[in-house]
Write a structure and sequence with these properties.
Blueprint (H helix, E strand, L loop, with lengths): L5 H15 L7 H8 L4 H28 L2 H20 L4 H14 L3 H12 L5 H29 L1 H22 L14 H5 L2 H17 L5 H9 L4 H27 L3 H18 L6 H18 L2 H9 L5 H29 L1 H31 L1
């Protein structure tokens, strides 16, 4: 963990604190139906509006990161998230909830392009995979603890979720504002808009690879729980215990291998991780017991650990310094798009059965890995400049 600049650790600490408070979004469906009495159809509409906001979020935040600044965008998005959390918590009518959820989708992850650009600005290229990997670890550690605490707070009253989440957002904003310098280049930030990114064929190809990865991985919290309980016959307790294995393995293993992985060729390592994720999800087709489910989770979690810090490091290598926010925004857009696409595709495939669903996901993972290997030489040439 040594050798990284002090401002990075301020960003790391803020990310950890922020994810400790990530309670509202995972419990939104329960909140809407129980505390606000919405029908399932109305709750689905609200979640769709949240998805629409998140689709706009990453690109917008990427532009702001390059134009306004990394620190201002990150701190501003966190303060906006805190205000929106509280507005949602006290919204009682469907129109007010819809507006709040759209705004929440727009701002809740808007810090990501700024955070990614800050790491690229602060950390040397050789150390970036390790730095991004450590951020990934902090987010997973905070999220796993936050989910547990969120369950307790929800029992005490849903309004506590909103206040706790808002407080951690404010802490993140203050920490970044006080301890992280602005790193946006003074010149060149207005040279070329988002069109420059969209004309970068290598970045577009890499974004499609990331989209494939995101569509497969997003099944872990969309269709995978449905498939395991409805079709494989696992209890909710068995499901929860097995999925907890994912978080435990990441928290224990990822920091131990982050430095080693960071010294390897990013393209080859990312391809290896994508293949592991694809194979792991393909194995889900054969699950008939919680033990075999755990085996499949170990395989795709190993792939996830390998890929942890590498994609963001590749984006940082591909991006011109003054466009790092926009490039990170397009990278984030792939994940936002997958959040919308994955449940639609997954639900239709799952209707055909376990085999069609999980073999298709495995194929997408392996095809993405092959595509990543094909992009490797061009990425290495760009990174060398």
């Amino acid at each position: 963990m040594g050798g990284l600049p002090r401002p990075f650790w301020a960003l790391w600490t803020g990310s950890l604190v922020n994810r400790l408070g990530t309670m509202v979004v995972p419990f939104t469906g329960v909140y809407l139906t129980q505390a606000r009495g919405l029908s399932l159809a109305a709750a689905g509409l609200v979640m769709a509006v949240f998805g629409a906001g998140s689709l706009l979020s990453q690109v917008t935040a990427g532009i702001l990161t390059d134009r306004v600044g990394r620190r201002a965008t990150l701190a501003g998005s966190m303060l906006a998230t805190a205000a929106t959390m509280l507005a949602l918590g006290y919204s009682t009518t469907l129109p007010a909830i819809l507006v709040s959820m759209f705004l929440l989708g727009l701002v809740v992850d808007a810090y990501r392009p700024a955070s990614s650009a800050l790491v690229a600005d602060l950390v040397s290229p050789a150390e970036r995979p390790r730095a991004y990997g450590l951020l990934f670890w902090a987010i997973n550690l905070g999220y796993s603890v936050g989910m547990t605490a969120g369950g307790w707070l929800a029992e005490a009253g849903f309004v506590w979720l909103f206040w706790f989440d808002a407080a951690t957002c404010v802490i993140f904003a203050v920490l970044v504002w006080r301890a992280v310098p602005e790193t946006r280049p003074e010149v060149g930030h207005a040279e070329g808009g988002f069109g420059v990114v969209l004309r970068d064929r290598l970045m577009i190809a890499f974004t499609l690879v990331v989209l494939g990865d995101a569509v497969v991985y997003s099944q872990s919290f969309t269709m995978l729980p449905v498939a395991m309980t409805k079709l494989a016959g696992l209890t909710t307790g068995e499901l929860g215990a097995a999925l907890a294995l994912n978080g435990v393995l990441i928290v224990i293993v990822q920091p131990l291998v982050s430095d080693w992985l960071g010294r390897r060729d990013p393209s080859r390592m990312f391809a290896l991780g994508l293949a592991g994720i694809g194979v792991g999800f393909a194995l889900t087709a054969f699950v008939t017991s919680v033990e075999w489910f755990a085996v499949s989770i170990v395989v795709w979690t190993a792939g996830e650990v390998v890929t942890a810090g590498i994609p963001a490091a590749i984006v940082a290598a591909l991006a011109p310094e003054h466009l790092r926010g926009r490039y990170a925004g397009l990278f984030g857009f792939a994940w936002s798009a997958a959040a919308v696409l994955a449940p639609v595709l997954g639900s239709r495939l799952l209707a055909l059965g376990q085999g069609p669903m999980w073999f298709t996901m495995g194929a997408i993972g392996v095809i993405s890995a092959v595509a990543m290997l094909a992009l490797g030489p061009a990425i290495r040439r760009r990174s060398a400049h």
